[in-house]
Amino acid sequence: MNKNKKKALLTALIVSLVLLVIAVASTLIFDYYMEYIQFDTLGMVIGHILGFLMMFCIVYKFEKKDDDEKPTDHNIY
Q1: How far lies 14's CA from each of 29, 40, 41, in Å?
Q2: 2, 22, 36, 61: least CB-packed within 10 angstroms?
Q3: Measured between alpha carbons, how far is 33 from 47 in angstroms, rounded to an integer?
Q4: Exposed/middle/buried for residue 40 (C-beta within 10 Å: 0-12, 13-18, 19+)
Q5: Which residue in 23, 3, 5, 1 sits closest to 59, CA to CA?
């Protein structure tokens, strides 16, 4: 694995973990203060896992740079 992919992997992991912690904390705080709304624990866990994986894939896709990729010339003239 080259240096750019390792950096992209680490960046995507950090960003996704921070957003996961924020999402879980805000959901638990919301659940604590709202007594009339009952959260399904399994659904909450599955939703947070799917959100983490999607965010990780999106950040990794846009952060990684392929060395063999040629720059695209978008000049139409």
Answers
A1: 23, 27, 25
A2: 36
A3: 20
A4: exposed
A5: 5
